[in-house]
Amino acid sequence: MTPDDMNANIVRYGDLIPCKTAFIDAHTPGSDQKENFTIIGGGVSESADQHVHISEKIGFNIGAAGQPPKCRNSLHSHRTAEVFFVLKGRWRFFWGRWGNAGEVVLEEGDIFNIPTGIFRGFENIGQDYGMIMAILGGDDAGGGVIWAPQVIEDAADHGLVLGDNGKLYDTKAGDHLPDGIAPMPLLDDAALATYPEPSTAEVVPGYVARYWDLVALSDTAPAKVIGADAKLRDRPGFEVDLITRGSAPTDMHPHSHPTVLMPMRGHWKLDYEGGSSATLNPGDTCLIPTGVSHALAPSMTGEASLYRIVPTEDPAGPTVRF
Asked: What is the model's pTM?
């Protein structure tokens, strides 16, 4: 690969382009300061304003959410996997029909493989702007977002209407539903009854991994974080590893699948075929195409860690439900 080829596959944290109108709660007080990012793949945005940095389909999507303190993402569900790790800040994740079935607080580096089929939301409970990085299963990210009924009702009070085509219309800006497009119907009681209400004790042990536990597991080999035989045993259509200084693959090697590198701490030197190299920093996202030989090593002393994600042949959704 030429340097230009590789640079086209690296999305720098400082170059991320946010969308502030990505979802139906974009005008709802308490959620109206969110910034959403689609880094790789089409994502699940409901807005035509969403910028996609790398549109290649690799079997999963990479995105991010940035929020100031006390800003929350409203209750929603996905048909496929949704995994978050905290890049910056302190975050509370909550779930259930009304968001009160259970909750967990994640610190920087912690990762949460949120079960499908439950309503979930999250908020920045830190003191500064926070960022969480997201992995969404499937090339189409499961066909969009399923909102709790109260979210759709609250949004309508603030001018945003979601059409049954999955697109947002801002009535306060003069938009209206096109002919043949009806408002997205609310889930009825029978449908809502199919959404589990697991407790914190049921969710956290099998779906949350703490950063420092993973660091300890990755001293000589990458820690298997999500996968059939990983710490979080699941088969959501991709596998996730944590790599640290002692487990970095320093020999040149190719992969038989696209590979995504997402640094968490430290600065990483990425060498790739052709004799060129690039430095990856926390918050950057790098897509290494299939068959491209590369090597990876921390470029400075100190703490260094990154998450590595690869697609698998499994369906884009977990095998375990409540």
From this structure: 0.94
